[in-house]
TrEMBL record, chain A:
GO terms for molecular function: ATP binding. PROSITE patterns: ABC_TRANSPORTER_1, ABC_TRANSPORTER_2. PANTHER family: CARBOHYDRATE TRANSPORT ATP-BINDING PROTEIN MG119-RELATED (PTHR43790), SUGAR ABC TRANSPORTER ATP-BINDING PROTEIN (PTHR43790:SF8). This is ATP-binding cassette domain-containing protein. It comes from the Bacteria.
TrEMBL record, chain B:
This is Xylose transport system permease protein XylH. It is found in: Cell membrane. Part of the binding-protein-dependent transport system for D-xylose. Probably responsible for the translocation of the substrate across the membrane. The chain crosses the membrane at residues 33-53, 65-85, 90-108, 114-134, 141-163, 183-204, 225-243, 249-267, 296-321, 333-349, 356-373, 379-397. Its main location: membrane. It comes from the Bacteria. It is a multi-pass membrane protein. It holds the Pfam family BPD_transp_2. It comes from Antiquaquibacter soli. Keywords: Cell inner membrane, Cell membrane, Membrane, Sugar transport, Transmembrane, Transmembrane helix, Transport.
Amino acid sequence: MTYSTQPAEHLLSLRGISKRFGAVRALTDVDLDVYAGEVVAIVGDNGAGKSTLVKILSGVHPQDAGEISFEGVPVTISNPTEARGLGIETIYQDLSLCDNLDVVSNLWLGRELLTNGGLDEVAMEQQSWTLLRELNARIPSVRVPVAALSGGQRQVVAIARSLVGDPKVVILDEPTAALGVAQTAEVLNLIERLRERGLGVILISHNIADVQAVSDRIVVLRLGRNNGDLRVADVTSEMIIGAITGASDASLLRGTRPAAVAR
Amino acid sequence: MTTTDIPTIADPNESGARAAVRDFVARARGGDLGSAPVVAGLIVIWIVFEILNPTFLSSTNLVNLTMQSAAVGTIALGVVLVLLIGEIDLSVGSVSGLASAVLAVGFVELGMPLPVVLVAAVASGALVGLLFGLIRTRFGVPSFVITLAGLLGVLGVQLAVLGRTGSINLPFESWIVQFGTQWFLPAWLSYTLVVAAVGSYAWSQVVLARRRTEARLPAVPLRTIIVRSVALLVLLTAAAWYLNLSRGVGVMFALFLLLAALTQLALTRTRWGRSVYAVGGNVEAARRAGIRVNRVYVSVFVLCSSLAALGGVFAAARLAAANQSSGGGDTNLNAIAAAVIGGTSLFGGRGSALSAVLGVIVIMSITSGLALINPDSSLRYIITGAVLLLAVVIDSLSRRSRAAAGRA
């Protein structure tokens, strides 16, 4: 594997991020880089700090120390609206959909299009179809309540919704955790389509097979610290698991030197 | 861009009525019954009372029924809003009583001009709602408890406003009492309003269908729009004609219908309305979507209490009096029952302003029908309670079958 496939544009860069909750050090000195058109998986055991890292990026909690720069500019993200304003969209594990509303209403919730002061349902529905078609998503009708959709379809709606605001980075928190085999494949295809659109994708997952199938780079967290930044093409699932559990030496795995992955 | 993968809502070869029936059956199987149970229930209630007492469906009695409905219906409209965001307001009766008291004391005892007093009465309700909304959002106390406390507290304020007199009669010549008891639309005006309402409905549907066709989206066929509009026109004209056999359509009742229509428009055509449904469906999702959830809560509580206050004004205008029992007794429960019987879910996120209209007509039909048979109110309470229970059971069952059909 060579470096030539590495996308050049540096979208998001975190340096020395630390976060404490009382006496608990959730994150210590964590670095993370995301490039445009790349899928970065963040893996780690329970309590490794994955969720905390996501919450810092999506503006739920600010970090205690460390810098975030977005497109090369230092930024502070103090609330979810600011994160969205920068172009960072988060798809939470529970999908955050309103079951009683239809697909169009969910896609545009909070940023509805208006015409003459009222909702512009026609424009919203039309753009919803365009978006879903671009994603090759199979949704029977955009006017059914979201509750009528299957788990995979709901995930598709949640992902499509994150694209309505034209983001630059999309964070997916355990998108395949509750899905069957076929639906998982569909969602992984969708993640690849996000990459093709030139977005930076951050994928949080427990499932090593999914991570290997779709991501370009794997960032391993262990006990709130970086424990490896691996190129997927260069590693086996045993190596990833080794980094997650701490069986492999963190210092050897840190950085993207291809030599480092050989034990 | 192709349109091949867009499903059509109705087969163009199928007639509008048949497509509508098929669509309804499909939705009913999924547990989305809409207004069907309440309309069916209303027909049964009317048939039963008509058999028991042939004056029930007389034009005179129905005119009375509409005039009785306006006050409680306006209160129920506010309750619908509160239920839509998944909250409850138990204080609407007391708030309506307070507004009655403010109206009577301000107008009769203090001699203030009517418009000022009316604004003060509705503002007193808005203030109570603002207080509820702020307590709900600042402290996170369940609205059930806040408004239960409000029920008592506001009742106390009502008694304090009334002072030692206890009961104040409004002068019969004042326009507010005339409005509540004597003002009816002239026959020609009632028909004109029916035509105007149906016409604007049909026109908006045609414009929408044209825009959708231009945008290559499935649109309601013109034939369906015509069938629906004509059906609506026949129904409303017949209703107006029947009421016109007696005194006609009361201005107060027409105002209530106008308020219901405006509320429905606000709920379905504005961002605010969309956020009301979103908050009722999933508060956390609404918050993450950037909706200012606290503002939605406060605005809904303010609107609910303001509508309750307006209902109190209507009640005082109709009875030409305000006293210590204004807004007491069964006002509270009738208003909440009307909203639920009309089809607004107690679980939040489902319902419409139309349910206040249908629900209040059901409640008032029972009240009026039983009063004709037996002036004792014991039976009335029992039957109203049973109907409310039935409505809640239907709500829970349809929720369950929605879950079974994957539409929870």
